Amino acid sequence: MGLLGVAYEVMSAAVDERQVTHPNPAVNVVKTAQLKALTIAAQLQGQPDNAHKVIITADTTVALDGQMLGKPSDAADARQMLQSLRNRRHEVHTGVVLLALATGQEVCGVNTAVVTMRNYTDAEIEAYIASGDPLDKAGAYAIQHPVFRPVAQLNGCFTGVMGLSVCHLLQLLPQLGVSGPAELTAVRHAHQQYPCPLYDKIVGKRP
Predict the structure, then answer these.
(1) Number of domains within the chain
(2) Which of 59, 65, 74, 136 is catalytic?
(3) Quick check: is 65 catalytic?
(4) In the sheet that 106-117 helps form, which strands lie side by side, from edge to edge?
(5) Domain residues for 88?
(6) In this structure, is the dihedral angle defined by the CA atoms of residues 167, 92, 146 and 58, taken in order, positive or negative?
(7) pTM summary value
(8) How high is the mean pLDDT in each 10-residue block of the chain (207 residues)?
(9) What's the CATH code of the domain at 23?
C-alpha cells in the first residue's frame, strides 16, 4: 500500500482461516479474504467517517502440484516446504477483496503467479529458518527477502507474491468508483527485477 502513496490504516482480522476449506486454491484465498473483510467491517460498524472507507483484504497461498502450502506451523514444517519447493515451479494465488463500508458493495479477484525457485542449498534453508522470516509466510518464503532471494524466475506480479498485488488492486478500485493514483513510479521500481504484465497493461492505458 505504501507504494501507492495513499493514506491507509492497518487492522488485523482475527479469523480462523482453517474454517475455509474449499479445495481449489484460487477459490480458497478469495473466500478467506472475504471472511477477513466481513470481520473488519463488523469491527468498524458504527464508527465515524465510514462513508468513504474501503476495506481491502487479501489472502495468499502457495500451490505445489495442487496442494496448498499455507504458513508453516514450526521450523520443521518450514524446512519441509522449502525443500519440496526447491528447484521446482509452483503457483502463488492471492485473493483480493474490496468492500465499501457505506454501500456494502464488494468486488473481488484472484491474482495468480507462476514461480520457479532456485536450487538453494540445505545450509541456506537453515540460515533462512534461523532468521525467523519464513514462519509467517505462505509456502515458508518471502520473494522480497534480501538475503535468501529464493526465486529464480517469476511469471506474474511481484507484489502479488508478496501478498497483495498492487497492480490487481488498481484494476479493482474503479469498480467501486475509486480512482487509483496517477503516479506509479514506486510501483514500477518494485517490478524492475521481475517485469509485470499487469503493470504494463495499466500503464499502457494511461496518457
Answers:
(1) 1
(2) 59
(3) no
(4) 67-69, 54-64, 89-100, 106-117, 151-155
(5) 2-204
(6) positive
(7) 0.87
(8) 80 89 95 96 85 91 94 97 98 96 93 96 98 96 95 91 88 84 61 66 59
(9) 3.90.950.10
